[in-house]
Fold:
Amino acid sequence: MDSQPNDTPTPAPPDMNRRGFLRTSAMFAAGAAALTASLKPLLQLKDFTSVDKFLQKYYKEMTPEDMEKVLKRIADDVERQYQVRPHVRDLKPMDGVEFVYALNLTRCIGCRKCVHACVKENNQSRSPEIQYIRVLKMPHGSLDVEKSEHNYSPEAVPEKGFFYMPVQCQQCRNPPCVKVCPVHATWQEKDGITVIDYDWCIGCRYCMAACPYGARHFNFTKPTIPADRLNPEMAYLGNRPRSMGVTEKCHFCVQRTRAGRYPACVEVCPAGARKFGNILDPESEVSKILSTKRVFIQLKEELGTSPRFFYYFDV
Amino acid sequence: MAYNKKTGVVLAVLFTVFALLTAAFSLDLWGKPAPVKQLPLVNKELLKTETWRRSYADLVKDKEPLDDFDCYTCHEEGKKQVLKFDDKNQLVIPDEHKDVVMGHGTHGRNNNCFNCHIDDKLNELQTRDGRSLKFEESTQLCGSCHGPTLRDWEAGSHGRTSGYWNRALGPFKKQDCVNCHNPHSPKFPGRKPAPAPNHLRESSGGPEPTPIKD
Structure:
């Protein structure tokens, strides 16, 4: 307080000096109060970033030993928060594998089981709700998403005159979200999955603005997951619990698919509308579908994103 | 030195105001963030991956009792069964088989039990080209009429799959027709969909439906 501007000798008359002093003091008080107010949200931080997490290296620069330490840190964090010891792995893409998803629009009945199986598998926040899959109800004879509705809740689905189109991350070959990320926290891996390093994401949400499919979701608060619904089978680039202020999206269940299993949405679909596999294997289901079925190429293909997610029809 | 006294008073007042503001902010007297509304959790029934029906093959594999399929507990062996039709040529299902709802094909066209069952060999099934099949081979029976669907099922584009897409790493399960379709009325029954998405900041009540524009 001694270094107030009024303490410095100035040639101005005393009354001017006092007015100046009052003005400066008032501004100082307001400024100090504003600063305190702006720092106020820090009080709401419950779990501070640990030094280890803060000093963690970029995913692509980590050595296997670094990764081992990081995985242990994540497992410890999860155990502290949820009292469940998870099995966290860092699964790398397999050689000679490129994942492709095919969805049969003739078969989908719009029951939304995939939405909730995905939430369970991938440890998304329950409140506020984050869901990777959005099922659009569309009138027959149109493929215009502007005419779709996603809040439908009738007594029974499917409804006459409508078909259902689930939309999730399309795993583009030319992903706009990756191009806009200023810190390279998201990138496309060689098996075609666009992944996010949640510890590298700065939460700028450019990717959400860039994605034409609304596939990316932002954790505006710390995600809430009931401990009894936590999926302990985790992957670093996959379903480990996210923190506040990072984006997330469908990653084709890397914790399952890179271990050879089907994604959760495929296994739960009661209509068998969802198909998943390796497009580089000519005997895989998706290879046969893409070569023999009527495929409505890709959603919003005019944007040139070239999705790895294909919608097809029977008949 | 009136001037210095005044300075001291003003500084003291400012200090008090500043301290009060700090206290007010620290004690969270106003400007609380909106509380996160706890949304109801989804029913765990919706997360199950089992099929809603179990096929005869599943029952055999799991060594479950097969009394329901032992036709000759009631029927006489070797005797030809005769169907009854009403005056509108609709099949009359006997009370003993009331659980069977005939809805295979539109307009009740496929209403002859012995299109698929055999009238003098009730524990087997027959295809239209005359092959006899066991109950656990029913998929081949379905395919004898629904050829393109059988072809798609074999290629993996029709029907449910679970387990490992990479067959080298683990087992893989493909469901039979009758795991999902009731052979007597194969059309999927309608069902209540899982809850619709909630809004990010839901004000009150359920989600507002977006009207469908023309």
